[in-house]
Design brief:
- The complex is a heterodimer of chains A (135) and B (132).
- Chain A has one domain (4-126).
- Chain A has one helix and nine strands.
- Chain A has one helix at 7-14, and strands at residues 4-5, 25-30, 53-56, 69-70, 75-77, 87-92, 102-106, 121-124, 133-134.
- The radius of gyration of chain A is 14 Å and the shape is globular.
- Chain B is α+β, with helices and mostly antiparallel strands and 132 residues long.
- Chain B has a four-stranded antiparallel sheet.
- In chain B, β3 (19-24) and β4 (27-33) form a beta hairpin.
- Chain B is rod-shaped, with a radius of gyration of 36 Å.
- The chains are: A mainly beta (135), B alpha+beta (132).
- The A-B interface holds A 2-5, 10, 68, 79, 104, 106, 108-112, 114-126, 128, 130-135 and B 107-121.
Chain lengths: 135, 132
């Protein structure tokens, strides 16, 4: 595949259910051997099996929306253990899985797939024009 | 010598010797030498074409929008207001979007980040173990 929006994510942006700089945005590392994301139909965190979630980040900081480019500080997940992950998904964390809306799945990045070794894992966002994503 | 041309509404255009006359209700309202008549006809034609473009603006804009939608590198008008209307039609006209889809693509795209994995942190116990 390629880095892509969830179809329902785009729908939720258009419907006003997602707000990049106002929502609590996080990412979840996904072991696709346990559950591969279905970009066309997955809409919330409960569509990703709990067993496929290797780890979850804290809230994104310094989010920006300038000129339609979603950006934020790089994200560091500390002392990550577990299975190899092939992708990660950015989502709106509400505290309830069924309402935590999925935005984007990233499976193409330098360093993917990655097997945690107990050390920190840092996601360094694209510094080009696309940033994290562009609408 | 009088030569009658076809009538346009109630106006006749006649030739009178080396002059061209415009006659309305049997009264000569304009009599011009042939060369002045030629010049006047060119100016009239040019102005009439400008007015025709304005009068047909919506039709020209729609047909130009079809060309834009199909990716043609030219337009049917130089009139800036009609060209702007054509661009608007190309982008928003419901029928054109339905029957000539795909000309205006989504700009949505996802960036390509980097994933860095640090080595595991060494605990004090491990450090002590390594020291032995």
């Amino acid at each position: 595949m390629a880095n892509s929006f969830y179809s329902k994510g785009l729908e939720n942006f258009l419907a006003g259910n997602l707000d990049w700089d106002a929502n609590d945005v996080r990412l979840v590392l996904i072991d696709e051997d346990d559950d591969a994301p279905v970009l066309a139909t997955d809409d919330a965190l409960d569509d990703i099996l709990a067993g496929a979630r290797v780890d979850t980040s804290g809230s994104f900081t310094t989010k920006a929306v300038t000129d339609g480019h979603a950006d934020a500080d790089d994200v560091t997940l500390t002392t990550v253990t577990g299975d190899e992950f092939e992708s990660f998904t950015i989502y709106y964390h509400t505290g309830t899985e069924s309402t935590s809306l999925l935005m984007v799945n990233i499976d193409t990045a330098t360093g993917l797939p990655c097997t945690p070794n107990g050390g920190d894992i840092t996601i360094q966002w694209d510094d080009g024009t696309d940033k994290i994503f562009t609408l | 010598m009088d030569v009658h041309t076809p009538k346009y509404a109630s106006i006749d255009v006649k030739i009178d010797g080396l002059r061209v006359c415009i006659v309305k209700d049997k009264q000569v309202i304009l009599s011009l030498p042939w060369d002045a008549a030629l010049m006047l006809s060119k100016v009239l034609r040019r102005h009439a074409q400008v007015v025709e473009e304005i009068a047909s603006a919506s039709k020209i804009a729609y047909e130009s929008a079809v060309l834009i939608r199909k990716g043609m590198p030219f337009s049917l008008t130089d009139h800036p207001a009609i060209a702007k209307e054509a661009e608007k039609e190309a982008a928003w006209n419901r029928d054109l979007r339905r029957y000539i889809p795909g000309s205006v693509k989504s700009q949505a795209r996802v960036g390509t980040p980097k994933v860095h994995r640090d080595p595991p942190r060494r605990t004090n116990a491990k450090l002590r173990g390594n020291d032995k």
